[in-house]
Write a structure and sequence with these properties.
Bound molecules: NADP nicotinamide-adenine-dinucleotide phosphate
CATH class of the largest domain: Alpha Beta
Shape: globular
Mean pLDDT: 93
Number of strands: 12
Number of helices: 14
Radius of gyration: 21 Å
CATH superfamily of the largest domain: Dihydrodipicolinate Reductase, domain 2
Strand order of the largest sheet: 3-2-1-4-5-6
């Protein structure tokens, strides 16, 4: 039986569920694929814990092992983790951390012959003047040792659909996407007449937003997804070339979260008027990413006709619509929940199993 060792970077919402799912599915994969998958190390902000016998431990034991050792540096530095993992035919780093700090470890792992799977968008959104970004995208384009399905639409088959369209000789005309569940929830409420500031407060209370809702309302998260889709299409673009409409009023950019929430009512009249105009034109307001093969890449508020699948979308669901030469009059569409621990973790594990097929033969 072939042995696949996973190094889990980040054991929060998504990473914790990766561990849970690996523990739960391990026996099935042994049977179905003749593949023994184990968690060989877990990394958090405080260091790396090697788990020699991770496969035999329950998910609770695994997480407890990390907690008990307080994520102290009992293991190697994350950039040195691949050679430290023994007893494996292939090693894959699973980046479910936040920010760019795992980038060096991802590059070192790829250089050492390991694989990488990301739900974390930040390393894939680094400027192309950074040689690490070039390395990551070289491996991503060859598809052999880096996969990043969960960076766009969580577990939805967004990147793989786009890659299949491109690999089979289709030409993308335009991708339009409602790629943020947070905006989806907010603007579905606004369409029902709820003032924007109340819709944001409700979305925050329901756990749809980041702790600081400005992290969502700035549009940066959607812009990163648009960038990743663009680069998947072969465009050599950086984040600063994307036109981003921020819904954070300038006067509230640098205040506390409480002051921001209390002051957001200043946007209600304008956004309410835009929503009413959209409704009068049989359209709905959506925060949309638009990506083309060589034109502008933009993310921002649009009035989208209700007659389209994008315009008719309600609630926090995501939708990615691919208009191509072959799917022109009726674009091919991928939609469903674009966030959540279980689906995002499953997206990462699906990537890891696909990589393993090439890496352990
Ligand atoms: N949640 C979703 O539905 C979803 C969907 C798609 C993509 N994503 C992406 O997936 C990633 C994880 O999301 P999440 O919701 O699981 O976040 P989370 O619950 O905040 O967990 C983040 C984890 O990353 C770890 N971490 C942070 N900085 C680190 C560093 N410098 N080195 C190593 N580990 C570090 C944290 O470690 P400590 O425990 O030590 O603080 C924590 O365990 C994010 O990049 C997010 O954008 C999430």
């Amino acid at each position: 039986m072939k042995r696949l060792a996973l190094v889990q970077i980040g054991h929060g919402t998504v990473g914790g569920d990766v561990i849970r799912q690996v523990v739960a599915q391990r026996a099935q994969w042994q049977e179905a694929f003749d593949l023994d998958v184990r968690i060989a190390a877990v990394a958090g902000r405080h260091g790396v814990v090697l788990i020699e016998d991770g496969g035999e431990l329950s998910e609770g034991d695994l997480l407890n092992a990390c907690e008990r050792r307080g994520m102290s540096a009992t293991g190697p530095a994350l950039t040195e983790v691949v050679p430290a993992v023994g007893n494996a035919d292939a090693v894959i780093l699973m980046d479910a951390s936040a920010g760019e700090s795992a980038t060096d470890a991802l590059v070192a792992a790829l250089d050492a012959g390991a694989g990488a799977v990301l739900s974390n968008k930040a390393p894939m959104a680094l400027p192309l003047s950074d040689p690490r970004a070039v390395t990551l995208w070289d491996h991503a384009r060859s598809g052999e040792r880096l996969k990043y399905e969960a960076t766009c639409g969580a577990g939805l088959p967004v990147i793989s659909t786009l890659q299949t369209l491109l690999n089979t000789g289709d030409d993308v005309i335009e991708i339009t996407a409602a790629a943020s569940g947070t905006f989806g929830a907010i603007f579905s409420s606004v369409a029902r007449g709820v003032p924007f500031s109340i819709a944001v407060a409700d979305a925050k209370a329901a756990g749809y937003t980041e702790p600081d809702p400005r992290d969502d309302l700035s549009g940066l998260d959607v812009a990163r997804k648009a960038l990743i889709l663009s680069r998947t299409m072969g465009r050599r673009v950086d984040l600063d070339e994307i036109e981003v409409e921020s819904l954070v009023p300038e006067s509230l950019a640098d205040v506390s979260i409480e002051t921001f929430m209390a002051g957001l009512g200043i946007s209600n009249a304008e956004i309410g008027a835009q929503a009413a105009k959209a409704i009068s034109e049989r359209a709905s307001l959506k925060y949309v990413a638009t990506v083309t093969p060589d034109g502008d890449i933009a993310v921002g508020l649009r009035a989208v006709p209700l007659s389209t699948v994008l315009g008719a979308l309600q609630g926090p669901e995501n939708i990615f619509s691919f208009r191509t030469r072959r799917y022109d009059a009726y674009p091919t569409v991928v939609s469903g929940p674009g966030a959540g621990a279980a689906v995002t973790a499953a997206g990462m594990i699906g990537d890891a199993l696909n990589l393993a097929r090439d890496m352990v033969k």
